[in-house]
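>> Question from a student workshop board

For tomorrow's exercise we were told to take the sequence and the ligand below, predict the bound structure, and bring the output to class. My setup keeps failing. Could a helper post the expected result so I can at least see what it should look like? The ligand is zinc ion.
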Amino acid sequence: MKDIFEAPFLKEMMKITSLMYKLGWDERNGGNISYILDENVVGEYLDLNNVIRTIPTGFDAKELTGRIFIVTGTGKYFKNVKHDPETNLGIIRIAKDGTTAELLWGYKDGGRFTSELPAHLMSHIERLKVNPENRIIMHCHPDYTLAMTQVHEADEKKITRTLWGQMTESIVVFPDGIGVLPWMVCGNNEIGRATAEKMKQYRLVIWTLHGIYGAGKDMDETFGLIETVEKAAKQYMLTAHLPKANAITDDNLRDLAKAFNLDYRKDFLD
Ligand code: 2HA
Ligand code: ZN
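>> Workshop helper replied:
Here is what the output should look like for this input. Compare the format with yours to find the bug.
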């Protein structure tokens, strides 16, 4: 067996949680990540027949039976992952019944996966239908995105158009737009189902007055989506109260879409 602490997927989790903490996106126990791993790769580092313990997930995710995930722990701080990954992360496999997680590694102090696991697993199910290559669901609390939800109408067409209008790169990075949920109680199946419903058409879902969800095939795509939304939201929060001298028009956005051959949400322009 190879040394799990040398596994590229573990190093990636350590690197990204540390970076997100430093960006201020994951205060205290804020934020969570789940990452689908290749069984053959995990098998190089762990005995896949050795289930440490089983943990009920609280809902049925039969579509994901046999899938292996590395997931941040509930109540755990992103800032601590790098220093003690085995306590702050866990590797789980969804059992045959669809409602049990088999712990293969981690949560060393008796802990368990993030309370947002329903939102993650339900989102994985939907994103895998759209793109079988999808591997990551990432949730965090970036400042400007969060601030924007305090002052901007919680409407997906309007938020997407506002963010596309902040900087040229926005529509290029997220031509599919952003789903928006109203304020809801977090950590339960209801917000999980609502998030997954949005994930049928979006890789990004804003939770009003809470944070954002991103989905992608790898860390770079997923992080890059959230990073770009946050940058655009920052532009908005820095300038929304000032008179505008220049603005990106609908025609500018159509020209960009043409130049970059974008499959974009045409109905989000007037
Ligand atoms: O895991 O961010 O939404 C802590 C949270 C809950
Ligand atoms: Zn959160």
